[in-house]
Amino acid sequence: MKNRGPRLVLLGKQGAGKGTQASQLAEHYGVLHLATGDLFRAAAHEGTPLGVEAQSYMDVGELVPDEIVIGVVEEELARSGAARTGFVLDGFPRTVRQADELERVLDDHPLDVVIDLDVPTEIVLHRIAGRRVCIQCQTPYHVDAPPKEGWTCDLCGGDVIQRDDDTEDAVMRRLELWELQTLPLIQFYRRRGILAHVDGTGDADDVFESMVVSVELRTADEA
After folding, report:
1. Cα–Cα distance for residue pair 63/80, rounded to 1 Å
2. How many angstroms separate the Cα of 188 from the Cα of each of 41, 74, 103, 138, 194?
3. pLDDT value at position 175?
4. Over the stretch 84-138, which tens digit does the pLDDT of each residue have?
5. pTM, whole model, 2 decimals?
């Protein structure tokens, strides 16, 4: 590609591993990894009006409204110049409305590719519902990789528990909401001819290589 990295959106269910893959892609191409959760926290820490608003919703466990999400992303793209130099967006857009607004914000710097990191529901359900965490030091565990002695933390001896939002019922509700919101979004980007599906069930390194191939195929004409 000429003088810039890709402009990339990464879609995927919670537990699909998209945060890790997005970070690796950003490092590989030398572009910013823009994760909405991180952007909200940074804006709140800086005390920007949008950041303070976003924090007020997160503090009570509510979804941050579209107009605030869009505003925070728009501010960061303008501040960093990432619309010109390239980026990996992780966690945004989540709806067709957000996708429309992203096109407006990017204007004459359109997306190169949107990757749907596809992992079956039963796999992500096992990944998330199997998570456990120490209530004292927050060390993470999993039912497939438990502490050495019962459910007592190896590091501090604290109790290792399952968070309320990691129960199977809670996870299924989030996954159902994701499906409801994301299927129209996938169709939106398929119509634009920039959607790529990547199987996210294999070895993490193999998944990463498949994602790089998808990016290269869609940016080869700029080489």
Report:
1. 25
2. 29, 20, 12, 39, 10
3. 87
4. 999 999 989 988 999 999 999 999 999 999 999 999 999 999 999 999 999 999 9
5. 0.84
Mean pLDDT of all residues in the chain? 91
Cβ(113)–Cβ(196) below 8 Å = yes
Cα separation, 209 vs 60, whole angstroms: 39
3-state secondary structure of 135: coil
- How is residue 1 annotated by DSSP? -
What is the residue range of 17's domain?
7-222
Does the residue 2 lie in any domain? no
Q: How far apart are CA 26 and CA 24, in angstroms?
A: 5
Active site residues: 18, 94, 131, 163, 174
Q: Residue 189 sits in a domain of what CATH number?
A: 3.40.50.300
Number of domains in the chain: 1
Q: Is residue 90 part of a domain?
A: yes
Q: Going by C-beta distance under 8 Å and a sequence separation of 6 or more, which residues neighbour residue 7?
A: 83, 86, 87, 106, 109, 110, 111, 112
Who's near 35: CB < 8 A, 6+ residues apart?
A: 19, 22, 90, 91
Where b means 16+ CB within 10 Å and e means fewer, 173-189 reads: ebbeebeeebeebeebb
Distance CA 215, CA 101 (A): 23
Count the residues in the chain: 223
Residue 107: C-alpha distances to residues 31, 83, 136, 152 (Å): 19, 9, 47, 53
Domain contains 188: yes
Residue with structure tokens 């359900």? 125
